[in-house]
Amino acid sequence: MSHPLAAFPTIVSPRLRQALAVAALATSSMTAFDAAQAQTAAPAAPVPVQAPDTAVRGLPDFTGLVETVGPAVVNIRTNIKPKAAGPDTSLQAQMQQLIEEYIRRNGGRGGHGAPGGGDNDQPDDDDQPEQGYIGSGFMLSPDGYVMTNAHVVEGADEVTVTLTDKREFKAKIIGSDQRTDVALLKIDATGLPFVKIGNVDRLKVGEWVIAIGSPFGLESTVTAGIVSAKQRETGDYLQLLQTDVAINPGNSGGPLINMRGEVVGINSQILSPSGTSAGISLAIPIDEAIRVSDQLRASGHVTRGRIGVQIGPISKQVAESVGLGKPVGALVESVQAGLPAEKAGIEAGDIITKVQDKTVERFSDLPRLVGMVKPGDKVKLEVFHDGKSKEITADVVDFGPETPPALADAAPDAVANTKATLGLQVTDLSDADRARLHIKGGVRVDGAEGASGRAGLQEGDVILTIGNVQVTSAKQFAATVAKLDKTKAIAVLVRRGDSANYLVIRPSK
To answer: Which listed residue (214, 252, 277, 293) is catalytic?
Structure first.
């Protein structure tokens, strides 16, 4: 009989080993009396088999998903020829440094094709390797179309796709879209396993999901978690899915998969102070990604509609003070000259609340909703203007860079002083200045004190409306202010620099 401690040579401390040995010796030294007494004792009652805990039985089994979807997930490596330039500080380079550091600490290659090696594996100066990036992707179709992140293949001179059966293919970049971080690749193969596309609208917060990818170059790695939030606003073009699935450098471009084996997102970003998983990962909704990939497959690039406005958010205070009620919609901060918004009559200070009958819940919804309209078509907008809602139809043009108009100093022709009430002193704008600013009225602020100063008005601002009344001149401005209820908050639409925004003047207490 083997010693009872033989099975624990590495995990039992010497002191614990000694205690266990004593206990074993004491157990084996049963006296004859003890043995006889044990033989005559009543037999013990049978112990029922305990049913598994319901929490354990309720845990999901991911094995079937991995077996089904796993073969359609690929590893992506890129090569970028070294350039004689300064250090690369891009996000791609930072992620690659993390991968190489992980591999260095583990004394070798982290996975098939992972860059770097052990401490003794240093290349000669005359034989510098090509730099690159490790990422993930997945098959969209059996004829070799692969979806991944745009940042995975950004600047790549060569892209290599490795399947789970270790076959490698050189991939062609069909197109990439930086705004959504989606790229489409093509390899020369047929009969390939491919993924099913899920419905993001059916995805629920708290639902189990898994990710498959190549974190730190370790291929076919599976991690699991739940959907933490949907429509997470990050300041980018798209609202993203948030999960607590462990995502690390190298997972980029891999699929986020629901319990039905459907892809619902592309793992794209992590929020972490260290650059590695901290329990917050972000994925591009697959419905948005498919719309982009369809355009990339058809033309190699993405076209989006726009109407030519610069926008900002609406605060609760502003919404209440202008009569909008709820803080929904996008505030038009400026209108680009010659584009559809100006031609349709939209002005700085207007609030666009609906696009094609869809409510603009957040101001960042507007570019997405208008961007979905094909350039050349018309778009129906609901606009809140001077305290009332109206419907406007505007043409949609192809998205392009927006250049805000240059502003000129005002040349006062008349002066109005409302310091006694609001702490404001304003002057008229010349016709030439209004033409340069693309505005019909407005007055220039020459001084802001008291309540106006506390509200944030500054010398040089241009006031376009006050209390939902269009400002046409300094004289008219003073007359309007005289009629306002000074006991209530007053909304002022202010043009500053290349944008317009609302400020709220509160009465003095």
So the answer is: 252
